[in-house]
Design a protein that fits this description.
7-stranded mixed beta barrel; single chain; 182 residues; alpha+beta; 5 helices
């Protein structure tokens, strides 16, 4: 009888974990890191007054990441969820010296057509956002948001900021930027 209870309990835990109810892992954005591209501070709120958390979920349908923005009173101000690339964290072919094996590790996350890169520097509950051009290139991620905005035509930037940018316009802007780099 006890054996059956354990089996049912284990099955229930596995099913709830795979449904996005229980996160696989939770992290907090380092105070020194920039905000993820999808997070916008409300007017009047400074970066040092905000906290961003990241929860990873794994399900049979893939891996997802949930970012939440909190104010200094722990009120949630924003929540966004997106997909993670691949089925495991990514590492560099030649990792920098001074890190434990397997670190730094990276997660490429896409939300609403915007892609950004999360960096985990150690086995700790802290994460960073990276703009390192060499890292982004090796991971196959376009240049950071600041670069994208600087090369995108004004009308495309405005449409993109409102979420109305056509994928073709983004591709045109990215192609033009790549041509200028050559």
């Amino acid at each position: 009888m006890t054996y059956r209870i354990w089996i049912v309990t284990a099955a229930a835990l596995v099913l709830t974990g795979s449904c996005g109810i229980i996160p696989e892992a939770s992290f907090e954005l380092a105070p020194s890191s920039r905000l993820p591209r999808w997070i916008q501070l409300p007017a009047g709120l400074r970066r040092d007054q905000a906290t961003v958390t990241l929860d990873y979920y794994v399900s049979p349908l893939g891996r997802t990441a949930k970012f939440s923005l909190f104010d200094s009173h722990r009120r949630r101000l924003q929540k966004v969820t997106g997909s993670q690339r691949g089925d495991h964290p990514l590492t560099l072919k030649k990792p920098p010296l001074g890190f434990a094996p397997g670190y730094p590790s990276y997660e490429v996350i896409s939300i609403d057509g915007l892609t950004d890169v999360v960096e985990h520097r150690a086995m700790e509950p802290t994460f960073y956002m990276t703009d390192d051009a060499a890292v982004r290139e090796e991971l196959g991620v376009p240049a950071n948001n600041a670069f994208e905005r600087s090369v995108m035509p004004r009308r495309v930037r405005a449409a993109s900021a409102m979420g109305n940018c056509a994928p073709a316009a983004r591709c045109q802007a990215h192609r033009a930027a790549a041509q200028r780099e050559r």
